[in-house]
Protein backbone atom coordinates (compact mmCIF):
# COMPACT_ATOMS: atom_id res chain seq x y z
CA UNK A 1 0.00 0.00 0.00
CA UNK A 2 1.36 3.46 -0.92
CA UNK A 3 1.96 6.20 1.59
CA UNK A 4 -0.71 8.31 -0.19
CA UNK A 5 -3.31 5.59 0.26
CA UNK A 6 -2.39 5.14 3.90
CA UNK A 7 -2.72 8.88 4.48
CA UNK A 8 -6.20 8.92 2.91
CA UNK A 9 -7.30 6.00 5.05
CA UNK A 10 -6.17 7.83 8.22
CA UNK A 11 -8.12 10.94 7.17
CA UNK A 12 -11.26 8.86 6.52
CA UNK A 13 -10.94 7.11 9.88
CA UNK A 14 -10.51 10.40 11.75
CA UNK A 15 -13.57 11.96 10.12
CA UNK A 16 -15.69 8.89 10.76
CA UNK A 17 -14.63 8.89 14.44
CA UNK A 18 -15.80 12.49 14.78
CA UNK A 19 -19.14 11.56 13.19
CA UNK A 20 -19.68 8.74 15.69
CA UNK A 21 -19.04 11.11 18.64
CA UNK A 22 -21.49 13.67 17.27
CA UNK A 23 -24.23 11.09 16.70
CA UNK A 24 -23.97 9.46 20.13
CA UNK A 25 -26.38 9.38 23.14
CA UNK A 26 -27.49 12.46 24.98
CA UNK A 27 -26.54 12.74 28.64
CA UNK A 28 -30.25 13.08 29.32
CA UNK A 29 -30.95 10.00 31.44
CA UNK A 30 -34.59 9.62 30.41
CA UNK A 31 -34.34 9.69 26.60
CA UNK A 32 -32.09 8.69 23.73
CA UNK A 33 -31.82 11.93 21.75
CA UNK A 34 -30.72 10.63 18.35
CA UNK A 35 -30.27 7.22 16.79
CA UNK A 36 -26.70 6.26 16.01
CA UNK A 37 -26.24 5.63 12.23
CA UNK A 38 -24.19 2.53 11.24
CA UNK A 39 -20.79 3.49 9.83
CA UNK A 40 -19.38 1.42 6.94
CA UNK A 41 -15.93 -0.11 7.35
CA UNK A 42 -13.04 1.91 5.96
CA UNK A 43 -11.95 0.95 2.46
CA UNK A 44 -8.44 1.28 1.01
CA UNK A 45 -10.05 2.80 -2.11
CA UNK A 46 -10.27 6.59 -1.99
CA UNK A 47 -13.87 7.94 -2.08
CA UNK A 48 -15.02 9.36 -5.37
CA UNK A 49 -16.92 12.23 -3.66
CA UNK A 50 -15.18 14.98 -1.63
CA UNK A 51 -15.20 14.43 2.13
CA UNK A 52 -17.67 16.57 4.08
CA UNK A 53 -15.99 19.30 6.15
CA UNK A 54 -15.30 18.09 9.67
CA UNK A 55 -17.25 20.97 11.24
CA UNK A 56 -20.53 19.62 9.81
CA UNK A 57 -20.09 16.46 11.83
CA UNK A 58 -19.58 18.48 15.02
CA UNK A 59 -22.90 20.37 15.01
CA UNK A 60 -24.40 20.36 18.56
CA UNK A 61 -27.02 17.72 19.36
CA UNK A 62 -30.55 19.09 19.87
CA UNK A 63 -31.65 18.18 23.42
CA UNK A 64 -35.44 17.92 23.92
CA UNK A 65 -37.41 17.95 27.17
CA UNK A 66 -37.55 14.70 29.20
CA UNK A 67 -40.38 12.41 28.15
CA UNK A 68 -42.77 11.39 30.94
CA UNK A 69 -43.01 7.63 30.84
CA UNK A 70 -46.50 7.20 32.31
CA UNK A 71 -49.74 9.12 32.47
CA UNK A 72 -49.45 9.12 36.28
CA UNK A 73 -46.14 10.97 36.07
CA UNK A 74 -47.78 13.66 33.97
CA UNK A 75 -50.62 13.89 36.49
CA UNK A 76 -48.22 14.19 39.44
CA UNK A 77 -46.08 16.84 37.74
CA UNK A 78 -49.15 18.91 36.89
CA UNK A 79 -50.64 18.38 40.36
CA UNK A 80 -47.47 19.59 42.05
CA UNK A 81 -47.29 22.67 39.80
CA UNK A 82 -50.89 23.55 40.57
CA UNK A 83 -51.25 22.58 44.24
CA UNK A 84 -47.85 23.17 45.83
CA UNK A 85 -48.46 26.97 46.05
CA UNK A 86 -51.49 26.16 48.23
CA UNK A 87 -49.53 24.01 50.70
CA UNK A 88 -47.73 25.94 53.44
CA UNK A 89 -45.06 25.47 56.06
CA UNK A 90 -46.23 26.44 59.55
CA UNK A 91 -43.72 27.57 62.18
CA UNK A 92 -44.95 27.93 65.76
CA UNK A 93 -43.50 29.86 68.70
CA UNK A 94 -44.05 29.53 72.42
CA UNK A 95 -43.15 31.99 75.16
CA UNK A 96 -41.37 31.84 78.47
CA UNK A 97 -40.13 34.64 80.76
CA UNK A 98 -41.27 37.27 78.29
CA UNK A 99 -39.42 35.76 75.31
CA UNK A 100 -40.67 33.62 72.44
CA UNK A 101 -38.78 30.95 70.53
CA UNK A 102 -39.56 28.57 67.70
CA UNK A 103 -41.14 25.45 69.15
CA UNK A 104 -42.24 23.37 66.20
CA UNK A 105 -43.28 23.22 62.58
CA UNK A 106 -45.84 21.48 60.44
CA UNK A 107 -47.86 21.81 57.27
CA UNK A 108 -51.23 23.13 56.18
CA UNK A 109 -53.25 23.91 53.08
CA UNK A 110 -55.38 26.80 51.82
CA UNK A 111 -59.07 26.14 52.45
CA UNK A 112 -60.69 29.28 51.06
CA UNK A 113 -59.94 32.71 49.60
CA UNK A 114 -60.54 34.34 53.00
CA UNK A 115 -57.07 33.22 54.08
CA UNK A 116 -58.24 30.25 56.15
CA UNK A 117 -55.70 27.42 56.32
CA UNK A 118 -56.38 23.90 57.59
CA UNK A 119 -53.82 22.10 59.74
CA UNK A 120 -53.63 19.78 62.76
CA UNK A 121 -54.53 21.04 66.20
CA UNK A 122 -51.36 19.47 67.59
CA UNK A 123 -49.31 21.66 65.22
CA UNK A 124 -50.60 24.96 66.60
CA UNK A 125 -52.06 24.12 70.02
CA UNK A 126 -50.50 26.24 72.78
CA UNK A 127 -48.50 28.48 70.46
CA UNK A 128 -48.29 32.23 71.07
CA UNK A 129 -47.11 33.17 67.59
CA UNK A 130 -47.55 31.46 64.23
CA UNK A 131 -45.78 32.09 60.91
CA UNK A 132 -46.93 30.72 57.57
CA UNK A 133 -44.36 30.28 54.80
CA UNK A 134 -45.68 29.96 51.24
CA UNK A 135 -43.87 28.23 48.38
CA UNK A 136 -42.89 31.57 46.81
CA UNK A 137 -41.11 32.65 50.02
CA UNK A 138 -43.85 34.94 51.36
CA UNK A 139 -44.02 34.81 55.17
CA UNK A 140 -47.27 35.83 56.87
CA UNK A 141 -48.28 35.97 60.52
CA UNK A 142 -51.30 33.84 61.34
CA UNK A 143 -53.87 33.60 64.10
CA UNK A 144 -55.84 30.59 65.31
CA UNK A 145 -59.47 30.78 64.18
CA UNK A 146 -60.56 27.58 65.90
CA UNK A 147 -59.33 24.14 66.89
CA UNK A 148 -60.88 20.84 67.84
CA UNK A 149 -58.83 18.46 69.99
CA UNK A 150 -61.26 15.59 69.38
CA UNK A 151 -60.51 15.49 65.63
CA UNK A 152 -57.02 17.04 65.85
CA UNK A 153 -58.05 19.70 63.32
CA UNK A 154 -57.47 23.45 63.43
CA UNK A 155 -57.95 26.51 61.24
CA UNK A 156 -55.52 29.42 61.16
CA UNK A 157 -55.90 32.62 59.16
CA UNK A 158 -53.55 34.91 57.25
CA UNK A 159 -54.40 38.35 55.88
CA UNK A 160 -52.72 37.89 52.49
CA UNK A 161 -52.62 34.97 50.08
CA UNK A 162 -50.24 34.84 47.11
CA UNK A 163 -52.11 34.83 43.76
CA UNK A 164 -51.19 31.20 43.07
CA UNK A 165 -52.41 29.97 46.46
CA UNK A 166 -55.89 28.79 45.57
CA UNK A 167 -58.20 26.67 47.76
CA UNK A 168 -57.71 22.93 47.36
CA UNK A 169 -61.07 21.18 46.81
CA UNK A 170 -62.27 18.40 49.11
CA UNK A 171 -62.96 14.92 47.79
CA UNK A 172 -65.56 12.42 49.00
CA UNK A 173 -64.86 9.58 51.42
CA UNK A 174 -67.26 7.37 49.43
CA UNK A 175 -64.88 7.58 46.46
CA UNK A 176 -61.77 6.58 48.40
CA UNK A 177 -60.79 2.91 48.11
CA UNK A 178 -57.93 0.67 49.15
CA UNK A 179 -55.37 0.43 46.35
CA UNK A 180 -55.87 3.95 45.02
CA UNK A 181 -52.89 6.24 44.63
CA UNK A 182 -52.34 8.61 47.56
CA UNK A 183 -50.19 11.73 47.35
CA UNK A 184 -48.87 13.63 50.38
CA UNK A 185 -47.67 17.23 50.16
CA UNK A 186 -45.95 18.97 53.03
CA UNK A 187 -42.73 19.83 54.82
CA UNK A 188 -41.16 16.70 56.33
CA UNK A 189 -38.20 17.64 58.58
CA UNK A 190 -38.72 21.24 57.41
CA UNK A 191 -38.04 20.37 53.76
CA UNK A 192 -40.64 22.57 52.10
CA UNK A 193 -42.58 21.56 49.02
CA UNK A 194 -42.07 17.81 49.33
CA UNK A 195 -44.31 15.42 47.40
CA UNK A 196 -44.45 11.73 48.22
CA UNK A 197 -46.57 9.03 46.64
CA UNK A 198 -48.04 5.73 47.79
CA UNK A 199 -51.37 3.97 47.96
CA UNK A 200 -54.37 3.83 50.26
CA UNK A 201 -53.42 0.72 52.23
CA UNK A 202 -56.48 0.51 54.50
CA UNK A 203 -59.69 2.36 55.35
CA UNK A 204 -61.76 2.75 58.50
CA UNK A 205 -58.93 2.80 61.02
CA UNK A 206 -59.56 4.19 64.50
CA UNK A 207 -56.76 6.44 65.73
CA UNK A 208 -56.34 8.32 69.04
CA UNK A 209 -57.35 11.96 69.29
CA UNK A 210 -55.74 14.58 71.52
CA UNK A 211 -58.39 13.60 74.06
CA UNK A 212 -59.45 10.31 75.59
CA UNK A 213 -61.67 9.70 72.56
CA UNK A 214 -60.86 8.30 69.12
CA UNK A 215 -61.03 9.49 65.52
CA UNK A 216 -62.99 7.03 63.34
CA UNK A 217 -62.75 6.34 59.58
CA UNK A 218 -59.05 7.30 59.43
CA UNK A 219 -57.19 6.56 56.19
CA UNK A 220 -54.06 4.41 56.31
CA UNK A 221 -51.40 5.00 53.66
CA UNK A 222 -47.87 3.94 52.83
CA UNK A 223 -47.12 7.31 51.21
CA UNK A 224 -44.05 8.44 53.21
CA UNK A 225 -45.05 11.05 55.79
CA UNK A 226 -42.70 12.15 58.55
CA UNK A 227 -42.39 14.79 61.28
CA UNK A 228 -43.33 18.09 59.64
CA UNK A 229 -45.96 16.53 57.34
CA UNK A 230 -48.59 16.98 60.05
CA UNK A 231 -51.47 19.11 58.82
CA UNK A 232 -50.61 18.72 55.16
CA UNK A 233 -53.07 17.29 52.63
CA UNK A 234 -53.39 13.70 51.50
CA UNK A 235 -54.63 13.89 47.91
CA UNK A 236 -56.12 11.66 45.25
CA UNK A 237 -54.97 11.83 41.62
CA UNK A 238 -57.71 14.37 40.92
CA UNK A 239 -55.90 16.78 43.26
CA UNK A 240 -58.67 16.63 45.87
CA UNK A 241 -58.07 16.48 49.62
CA UNK A 242 -59.08 13.09 50.98
CA UNK A 243 -57.38 13.48 54.36
CA UNK A 244 -55.15 15.54 56.63
CA UNK A 245 -51.90 13.76 57.47
CA UNK A 246 -51.77 13.40 61.24
CA UNK A 247 -50.05 10.33 62.66
CA UNK A 248 -47.37 7.77 61.82
CA UNK A 249 -46.34 4.34 63.02
CA UNK A 250 -42.66 4.36 63.91
CA UNK A 251 -42.21 0.92 65.39
CA UNK A 252 -41.26 2.62 68.66
CA UNK A 253 -37.61 3.07 67.70
CA UNK A 254 -37.54 6.53 66.09
CA UNK A 255 -39.74 9.44 65.06
CA UNK A 256 -39.53 8.46 61.37
CA UNK A 257 -42.24 6.64 59.43
CA UNK A 258 -41.94 2.86 59.39
CA UNK A 259 -44.25 2.59 56.38
CA UNK A 260 -47.66 3.22 57.95
CA UNK A 261 -49.22 6.67 58.18
CA UNK A 262 -52.71 7.85 59.09
CA UNK A 263 -54.80 10.76 57.83
CA UNK A 264 -57.92 12.30 59.31
CA UNK A 265 -60.63 11.49 56.72
CA UNK A 266 -62.32 14.05 54.50
CA UNK A 267 -65.70 13.05 55.99
CA UNK A 268 -64.60 14.57 59.32
CA UNK A 269 -62.80 17.51 57.67
CA UNK A 270 -65.98 18.49 55.82
CA UNK A 271 -67.97 18.35 59.05
CA UNK A 272 -65.59 20.09 61.45
CA UNK A 273 -63.82 22.83 59.46
CA UNK A 274 -66.89 24.95 58.57
CA UNK A 275 -67.87 25.00 62.25
CA UNK A 276 -64.35 25.99 63.33
CA UNK A 277 -64.45 28.91 60.90
CA UNK A 278 -67.94 30.01 61.92
CA UNK A 279 -67.83 29.31 65.67
CA UNK A 280 -64.23 28.58 66.63
CA UNK A 281 -65.21 25.11 67.86
CA UNK A 282 -67.10 21.94 67.00
CA UNK A 283 -69.43 20.07 69.35
CA UNK A 284 -69.27 16.28 69.18
CA UNK A 285 -71.99 13.97 70.45
CA UNK A 286 -71.27 11.55 73.27
CA UNK A 287 -72.89 8.23 74.10
CA UNK A 288 -70.88 7.46 77.22
CA UNK A 289 -70.00 3.78 76.80
CA UNK A 290 -66.84 1.68 76.64
CA UNK A 291 -66.73 -1.60 74.81
CA UNK A 292 -65.66 -3.65 71.82
CA UNK A 293 -66.81 -6.06 69.15
CA UNK A 294 -68.95 -9.00 70.17
CA UNK A 295 -66.78 -12.12 70.13
CA UNK A 296 -67.49 -15.83 70.21
CA UNK A 297 -66.56 -16.29 73.87
CA UNK A 298 -68.98 -13.60 75.07
CA UNK A 299 -71.69 -14.76 72.69
CA UNK A 300 -71.48 -18.36 73.91
CA UNK A 301 -71.18 -17.46 77.59
CA UNK A 302 -74.24 -15.20 77.41
CA UNK A 303 -76.13 -17.48 74.99
CA UNK A 304 -76.81 -14.55 72.69
CA UNK A 305 -79.08 -14.95 69.63
CA UNK A 306 -76.84 -12.75 67.41
CA UNK A 307 -73.45 -13.22 65.76
CA UNK A 308 -72.39 -9.56 65.53
CA UNK A 309 -72.81 -6.39 67.53
CA UNK A 310 -71.13 -3.89 69.86
CA UNK A 311 -70.66 -5.22 73.38
CA UNK A 312 -70.83 -2.67 76.25
CA UNK A 313 -68.26 -3.46 78.91
CA UNK A 314 -68.67 -0.23 80.90
CA UNK A 315 -71.07 2.69 81.15
CA UNK A 316 -69.74 6.11 82.18
CA UNK A 317 -71.48 7.32 85.33
CA UNK A 318 -73.78 10.26 84.61
CA UNK A 319 -73.40 9.91 80.83
CA UNK A 320 -76.21 9.55 78.30
CA UNK A 321 -76.12 5.74 78.30
CA UNK A 322 -76.15 5.64 82.10
CA UNK A 323 -79.12 8.00 82.30
CA UNK A 324 -80.96 5.82 79.76
CA UNK A 325 -80.35 2.69 81.83
CA UNK A 326 -77.86 0.87 79.61
CA UNK A 327 -75.78 -1.79 81.35
CA UNK A 328 -72.12 -2.71 81.22
CA UNK A 329 -70.43 -5.96 82.31
CA UNK A 330 -71.64 -7.27 85.65
CA UNK A 331 -69.38 -10.25 86.31
CA UNK A 332 -66.35 -12.22 85.15
CA UNK A 333 -66.33 -15.85 84.09
CA UNK A 334 -63.59 -18.23 83.00
CA UNK A 335 -64.02 -20.13 79.75
CA UNK A 336 -61.21 -22.29 78.32
CA UNK A 337 -58.81 -20.76 80.86
CA UNK A 338 -59.74 -17.31 79.60
CA UNK A 339 -61.23 -14.60 81.82
CA UNK A 340 -64.03 -12.70 80.10
CA UNK A 341 -66.56 -10.08 81.16
CA UNK A 342 -70.23 -10.78 80.62
CA UNK A 343 -73.60 -9.28 81.50
CA UNK A 344 -73.41 -6.11 79.40
CA UNK A 345 -75.88 -4.96 76.77
CA UNK A 346 -75.15 -5.62 73.08
CA UNK A 347 -76.07 -2.85 70.64
CA UNK A 348 -77.23 -4.21 67.28
CA UNK A 349 -78.73 -1.05 65.69
CA UNK A 350 -78.85 2.76 65.98
CA UNK A 351 -81.93 4.50 64.60
CA UNK A 352 -82.60 1.38 62.57
CA UNK A 353 -79.09 1.23 61.09
CA UNK A 354 -77.43 -2.14 61.69
CA UNK A 355 -74.41 -2.24 64.03
CA UNK A 356 -71.90 -5.02 63.42
CA UNK A 357 -68.88 -3.62 65.30
CA UNK A 358 -68.11 -1.09 67.99
CA UNK A 359 -66.52 1.02 65.24
CA UNK A 360 -69.97 1.31 63.64
CA UNK A 361 -71.20 3.10 66.77
CA UNK A 362 -68.29 5.56 66.73
CA UNK A 363 -68.82 6.37 63.06
CA UNK A 364 -72.58 6.81 63.32
CA UNK A 365 -72.44 8.99 66.43
CA UNK A 366 -69.59 11.10 65.01
CA UNK A 367 -70.96 11.70 61.53
CA UNK A 368 -74.73 11.59 61.90
CA UNK A 369 -75.67 13.14 65.25
CA UNK A 370 -75.43 16.33 67.28
CA UNK A 371 -75.47 16.95 71.04
CA UNK A 372 -78.91 16.92 72.70
CA UNK A 373 -80.30 14.78 69.88
CA UNK A 374 -82.48 11.78 70.76
CA UNK A 375 -81.48 8.43 69.26
CA UNK A 376 -82.96 4.95 69.50
CA UNK A 377 -80.71 1.98 70.24
CA UNK A 378 -81.73 -1.60 69.56
CA UNK A 379 -80.05 -3.83 72.15
CA UNK A 380 -79.89 -7.44 73.31
CA UNK A 381 -80.34 -7.79 77.08
CA UNK A 382 -80.78 -11.10 78.88
CA UNK A 383 -81.28 -12.74 75.50
CA UNK A 384 -84.15 -10.44 74.54
CA UNK A 385 -84.29 -7.64 71.95
CA UNK A 386 -85.51 -4.22 73.10
CA UNK A 387 -85.30 -0.56 72.08
CA UNK A 388 -83.88 2.19 74.30
CA UNK A 389 -84.20 5.93 73.63
CA UNK A 390 -81.52 8.25 74.98
CA UNK A 391 -80.40 11.87 74.64
CA UNK A 392 -76.81 12.45 73.50
CA UNK A 393 -74.58 14.91 75.37
CA UNK A 394 -71.56 16.99 74.29
CA UNK A 395 -68.22 15.25 74.73
CA UNK A 396 -66.04 16.10 77.71
CA UNK A 397 -62.35 16.85 77.07
CA UNK A 398 -59.39 14.94 78.48
CA UNK A 399 -56.00 15.42 76.85
CA UNK A 400 -53.68 12.43 76.42
CA UNK A 401 -50.34 11.82 74.74
CA UNK A 402 -49.70 9.77 71.62
CA UNK A 403 -47.25 9.53 68.72
CA UNK A 404 -47.39 12.66 66.55
CA UNK A 405 -45.53 13.32 63.28
Write the layout of secondary structure elements.
Elements: H1 3-22, H2 54-57, H3 71-83, E1 87-96, E2 99-110, E3 116-120, H4 121-124, E4 129-133, E5 139-148, E6 153-157, E7 181-186, E8 194-208, E9 214-221, E10 233-235, E11 241-249, E12 260-265, H5 266-279, E13 285-286, E14 289-293, H6 296-302, E15 310-315, H7 320-323, E16 331-335, E17 338-342, E18 346-350, E19 353-354, H8 358-368, E20 374-381, E21 384-391, E22 393-394
Antiparallel strand pairs: 1-2, 1-4, 2-3, 3-6, 4-5, 5-6, 7-8, 7-10, 8-9, 9-12, 10-11, 11-12, 13-22, 14-15, 15-18, 16-17, 18-19, 18-20, 20-21
Question: Quick summary of this structure?
Answer:
By secondary structure, this protein is an alpha+beta fold. The chain has helices at residues 3-22, 54-57, 71-83, 121-124, 266-279, 296-302, 320-323, 358-368, and strands at 87-96, 99-110, 116-120, 129-133, 139-148, 153-157, 181-186, 194-208, 214-221, 233-235, 241-249, 260-265, 285-286, 289-293, 310-315, 331-335, 338-342, 346-350, 353-354, 374-381, 384-391, 393-394.
How does this structure look, described?
Helices cover 19% and strands 35% of the residues. The chain is of the alpha+beta class and 405 residues long. It has four domains: 3-57, no CATH class; 78-157, Beta Barrel (Thrombin, subunit H); 173-279, Beta Barrel (Thrombin, subunit H), CATH 2.40.10; 285-394, Pdz3 Domain. The strands form five sheets. Strands 1-2-3-6-5-4 form a six-stranded antiparallel beta barrel. It is elongated, with a radius of gyration of 32 Å. The termini are far apart. Mean pLDDT is 84; it is low at 1-61 and 399-404.
Amino acid sequence: MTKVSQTKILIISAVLSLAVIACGFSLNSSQVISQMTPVPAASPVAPTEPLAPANLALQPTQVSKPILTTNEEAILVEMYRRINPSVVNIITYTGENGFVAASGQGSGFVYDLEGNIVTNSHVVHGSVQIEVVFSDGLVEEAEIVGEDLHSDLAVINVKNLPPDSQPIPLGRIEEVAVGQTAVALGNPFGLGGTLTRGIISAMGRTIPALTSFSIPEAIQTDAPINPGNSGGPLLNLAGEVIGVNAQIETGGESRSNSGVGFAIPVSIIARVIPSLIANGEFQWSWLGVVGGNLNTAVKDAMKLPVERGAYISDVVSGGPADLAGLRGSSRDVTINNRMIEIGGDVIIAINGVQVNTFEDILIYIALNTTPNQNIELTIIRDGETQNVTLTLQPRPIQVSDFNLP
